Hints:
Blueprint: E1 3-8, E2 11-19, E3 25-27, H1 32-36, E4 56-59, E5 64-67, E6 70-71, H2 72-78, H3 81-90, H4 96-108, H5 117-121, H6 129-143, H7 150-175, H8 189-198, H9 209-221, H10 229-238, H11 244-255, H12 263-276, H13 281-289, H14 310-326, H15 331-344, H16 347-351, H17 358-368, H18 376-397
Helix pairs in contact: 2-9, 3-18, 4-7, 6-7, 6-11, 7-8, 7-18, 8-9, 9-14, 9-17, 9-18, 10-11, 10-18, 11-18, 12-17, 14-17
The structure holds s-citryldethia Coenzyme A.
Amino acid sequence: xxxxxxxxxxxxxxxxxxxxxxxxxxxxxxxxxxxxxxxxxxxxxxxxxxxxxxxxxxxxxxxxxxxxxxxxxxxxxxxxxxxxxxxxxxxxxxxxxxxxxxxxxxxxxxxxxxxxxxxxxxxxxxxxxxxxxxxxxxxxxxxxxxxxxxxxxxxxxxxxxxxxxxxxxxxxxxxxxxxxxxxxxxxxxxxxxxxxxxxxxxxxxxxxxxxxxxxxxxxxxxxxxxxxxxxxxxxxxxxxxxxxxxxxxxxxxxxxxxxxxxxxxxxxxxxxxxxxxxxxxxxxxxxxxxxxxxxxxxxxxxxxxxxxxxxxxxxxxxxxxxxxxxxxxxxxxxxxxxxxxxxxxxxxxxxxxxxxxxxxxxxxxxxxxxxxxxxxxxxxxxxxxxxxxxxxxxxxxxxxxxxxxxxxxxxxxxxxxxxxxxxxxxxx
Length: 428
Ligand code: SDX
């Protein structure tokens, strides 16, 4: 099957078929409009591929997620976040020397320019952390010119990975009125983040190794996920030639939405609401099924996974282990498990392939680490950064890349004659 034939009224066009390395089949419609005058229409792009990519593979039916061919389960168990970041961005797992050099580079670039602290001062304590993150990332373009050579792009990649950690922690400290804690070169990426978040000048803060390992694993699980909403945004903005910082800033904005990265925050808010309502699960399951009720079971459902999200499985297992080891008895964990069980016994969810996604249990772990709910989506952005970067670089280097400019089907007025202001019927 090397072509797919599309026939519209009296027109026919043969579209070349592309088959991926995991036997995914697509047909290229680049000639469709020029040949037939017609376009396709696919709201939400559920059936439309925007690119060919070699970074992440997802099989939604089998619950498979692989970064550059390595399974998410193996990476979560054996790798580290910077090891995975290197893999996603440069395509191969680093040697020990390569990882040490990458680590050192990132450590050396973790400071923010002192003038950038003034940006934080202008925000009220109530400023949404994702808005702060997006703005400060975009402002990096003012301090670090976006060169186009591989060396300049790579230096900005290192700067961004290093500084996002610091920007996230500084935004938290600003929101609680505490002094900023500067990054330390003797701590790992995850440990340094926790130290910047929770240390105070007046006392020693020892990072807890179990929490460091758990955070590092959560960052790995969030690192990439093929052409999701925020990654597609990063690619779209970058396709115009916009620099890395501007493209990532746009991705942060897309991720902040409650249907995407903002869901981890909404899950905890939902579980708290159900708990305060006497854990009346049936009521909320019924609301989620009711077409006339805007309520959705947050953390449930996925555009691609129709059986289970492999990340949710790892996170649920880790939540049991970590809360047990920390001696934390979080009622929301039991509540979440009960809600999952009840929902998955219900045909409505099973028929639609609605299962817990990455956001359903992740908030339980962030809570156990002492991370406040309004910072959960920032944690998602920290994890997703290397994936966004890898996808942006792949887009930039792909000879097939053109500026993204979708078409539309116009449904407005046909041509109308202009009416002078005094003669307009709808004006009093
Ligand atoms: C992420 O794309 C990615 O890869 C994203 C992500 C990543 O790593 O980047 O995995 C991260 O964003 C995970 C998703 C986090 N969002 C949520 O948990 C919010 C709750 N979930 C939904 O809003 C929804 O499931 C989406 C947004 C995740 C997926 O939406 P789709 O694919 O557009 O599906 P849909 O809205 O068309 O729903 C299909 C049906 C509908 O019912 P019918 O019209 O067929 O009767 O399922 C129903 C929906 O009403 N449905 C839900 C539901 N999700 C879908 N009903 C109740 N509760 C839900 N959560």
